[in-house]
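User: Please run a holo structure prediction.
Assistant: Happy to. Please share the sequence and the ligand.
User: Here you go; the ligand is zinc ion.
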Amino acid sequence: MSDSNNTALQRFSYCPLCGTELSRSEGSGGAYCPVHDHSWYRSSSLTVGCVLIRDGRALVTVRGIEPEKGSYDVPGGFLEAGEHPVDGLRREAREELGVEIEGVKGPVQMAVHRYGEDGDYVLALGFTARIAGGEPAAADDAAGIEWISPEKLEGLDFAWEHDRELVRAALDHEGNNQKDHGNAGGGG
Ligand SMILES: [Zn+2]
């Protein structure tokens, strides 16, 4: 992929408010509108995702929309402007699974990746949480859900590799907690 021809790396050309052609701001990477006396910047879009664990298994979703439709993913999505990451996670859990979550921890992962055909940059924040109540069922842009064991994790076709790493870390952590609790003096 040629970066010089890549929309993800290009600056804005016209002011989104008034359509005036923007000039390059020196050094900062922004693009300046003289009408609004304002510099516009492109930065990574923010997403939040979370691993929900129950009985030693992690909940993963099957993507119902492009990009990567049909691949595995974790519950979550793009943050809205001004939205706190934890509020965004709660919203996504309601939209995609129909459940409330509690005990949100993190971010436990920060991953920069590229999304979709244009390769736009995304900063993915990964969390862990628990389901506060109710049975999750796939809705919105999730086509299905599965509870997966650590043994099944490596064989799944994840849309983004960092999601597998997030799930693996959460399952490892959960497994170690179980060992500590079930094995007095087991340590480690
Ligand atoms: Zn303007």
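The CA atoms of residues 22 and 33 lie 5 Å apart.
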